[in-house]
Amino acid sequence: MKHSLFRLCGAGALVLPLSVWAAPIVEDLSAQQQSRSFYEQTEVREPGGGSLMLLNQLEENQRQIQQLRGQLEELRHQLEQMRQLNQERYIDLEERLAAVGTVGGSPSVDPGAAQQVAAAGSGNGGAQAAYQEAFQQVQARDFPSAIVAFEGFVSDYPDHDLTANGYYWLGELHSAESDLDQAAAAFQTVIDDYAASNKVPDALYKLALLRARQGQPDASRELLDALMESYPDSNAATLASEFLNQSGL
Fold first, then answer.
1. Angle, CA 76 vertex, CA 61 and CA 95 arms, to 5°
2. Disulfide-capable partner of 201 in 156, 169, 231, 232 (CB 3.0 to 4.6 Å)?
3. Separation CA 141–CA 68 (nearest Å)
């Protein structure tokens, strides 16, 4: 019996250290978790900060765009005022010439030339009526309708004495509508195809202004010089000289 108990106790003494060594090891992971939590929070915060910077930059860009839009609107308003004043000046001129028996004259028209235009108009009632109808749209400030009417007039009467005037008004109207290429083409047609017309000096002057607006100062100066040389006594030449003095071309 004693031997049996001894063997059992001996076995127990051997088993006990084994059971102790086999026990699960518990590690303190709190420091690792805190470290991991810190880095995870840093990784979350960093993208958030970048998004905030992008948002601030976007707001700044939008503010600058708003300022530029405001400046652009102001420039457009000033340009529109200048166009209206210029258009009204020529409209008033045409109305005064119509009162003495002609329409579509130029600043340099004398009474004899006015009578010639009136006589040419009376010789072709259809053309005269079509021209006057187109010009009435100008007086009504209905520029799109006036463009259509004058385009119809120059198409139907390409060789009439008032055809050059029709092209000239197309240049004025397209310019008022900010269609500078079409305006330039109309003024150029007066210069190239109707050299005998009294509208040529005015067409040269207006085309020179258009070239200046289009950022072509050399072309503008060339046209103004040609105007003053070829038509020195015209009112358009006087305007050209004043424009050169003021613009410094």
1. 175
2. 231
3. 31
- Burial category of 11 from C-beta neighbours within 10 Å (exposed 0-12, middle 13-18, buried 19 and up): exposed
What pLDDT is attached to residue 243? Answer: 87
* Cα–Cα distance, 203 to 213 (Å, whole number): 15
Does residue 134 contact residue 150 with C-beta atoms inside 8 Å?
yes
Give me the helix-helix angle, 200-213 and 217-230, nearest 10°. 160
Q: How many domains would you assign to the chain?
A: 1
Any alpha helices (H) in the chain, and if so which ranges? 2-21, 30-99, 111-122, 125-139, 143-156, 163-176, 180-193, 200-213, 217-230, 235-247
Question: Phi, psi at residue 163, to the nearest 5°?
Answer: -65, -40
pLDDT per 10-residue tile (average), the chain, 249 residues:
45 42 47 49 50 82 84 78 59 46 35 39 72 91 94 95 94 92 96 95 94 91 95 92 82
Residue identified by tokens 């001894």 is 6
For residues 39 and 76, what is the distance between their CA atoms, to the nearest angstrom? 56
> At 87, which CATH number?
1.25.40.10
- Rounded to whole angstroms, the Cα distance separating 104 from 191 reads 16
Range of the domain at 204: 82-247
Q: What is the Cα–Cα distance from 145 to 128, expressed in whole angstroms?
A: 18
* Unique residue bearing structure tokens 């047609």: 189
| Residue indicated by tokens 């950022």 | 215
